[in-house]
Amino acid sequence: MIDFIYQNPTKIIFGNGSIEKLSSEILNYGTRVLLVYGGYSIKDSGLYDCLVNQLKRNEIEYQELPFVTIPALDRVYEGINIVKENQIDVIIGIGGGTCLDVAKAIALGAANSYDIWDILTGKILYDNLKCLPIGTAVTIPGSGSEMDGNSEIVDIDRGINGSIGSFEKTYPRFSILDPELTYNIPYSLTLYHGVTILVQAMEQYVCNTTDTPIQDGFTESILKTVLTALKCLKNDLHDKNARAQLMWASALTTSRILGRGKKALWLGGALGGIIEEKCGLTYSQSIAITWPKYLLTCYQDYVGILKSFALNVMNVDPENKSCDQIAYEGVKVFQETLLELGIANNVEELGLKKYCVNDLEKQIKQADLEDLISKQDIETIIRLTLGG
């Protein structure tokens, strides 16, 4: 285990009905809020009316940034202008990772005189930057943005990504985790976001740092719990316990605790990013399809930890098998389990435009992974992902 420093300042308010505590948390920081939310589901579910009535009862003034369905830079600028024009005190992200990431970028951009894009692209260092208080109410668990300081924003016009990398001031001051807000999420969306939790946990787990039994045991417990919850939800979308387990697992997975003391590689997003935009996939789809192919291709690089995964998570029988065989079987069973749950085996199964590895040469080069994975292995992963 390597040395580390760990701090997570986010207050978690967890439980059914906890959304009713939103106003009391807001009032710790001010009386004027900006609500950042996505599409129509917040209104169709009745959540919007619930929130607005709650804010009015508590004399909290609110402005809105609706229809945030992509973490786009132009929406961040729009939000910053609203904040400055209305002297907003608190930014509230409501929804999944997209809304939460945009809320963080707005809070950082509105509190400083710098262009937010210069901050997101590393031209301005975090030293001495200010940030407005951020709160979240999660309706689609999976990204883990409710308990970390990260934010990913895209300049759509130029096709360039910017980010906030775990800045302590962009951690939410509080996050409302109310499982009841997730009961109406359809199974396909639940599944892909659930697998996002699995991948983001395994990104920190699959490495060659040794003597980390606490971190590894914690991760294995989360992996088993999420797989069990997804199996339950396949049969009963309204399984309250399964919904609660997914919500808590999502928050813990990117709280930075699982990877402390380990040299985590965080390869899931980078590999998924090779195919995501070109193939027209969501983030969750891209990593859910790509990650098992990575494990199947590169399992021999991490036999020790993947043997533990096979035995402790996938319940592989080790009798008369070598360590390599146990590790490989664990990965194989994992892939088969995802397919049984309903994850597409490859891009072709999703009915999207067919590409070959050569079509993605630019994306492979931009991913810049050859110090971690050989070019041949990257091409194998992408070929299997595409369906070739």
Automatic annotation (TrEMBL):
MF-aspect GO terms: alcohol dehydrogenase (NADP+) activity; butanol dehydrogenase (NAD+) activity; metal ion binding; methylglyoxal reductase (NADPH) (acetol producing) activity
Annotated keywords: Oxidoreductase
Keyword Cell cycle in annotation: no
One family name in Pfam for this protein:
ADH_Fe_C
The entry's cellular-component GO terms read: cytosol
- SUPFAM superfamilies from the UniProt entry: Dehydroquinate synthase-like
Q: Where is the Fe-containing alcohol dehydrogenase-like C-terminal domain?
A: 191-367
Q: Where is the Alcohol dehydrogenase iron-type/glycerol dehydrogenase GldA domain?
A: 9-179
Give the residue range of the signal peptide.
Answer: none
Q: Which InterPro entries match?
A: ADH_Fe/GldA (IPR001670), ADH_Fe_C (IPR056798), BDH-like (IPR044731)
Protein name, UniProt field: Iron-containing alcohol dehydrogenase
Lineage of the native species?
A: Bacteria, Bacillati, Bacillota, Erysipelotrichia, Erysipelotrichales
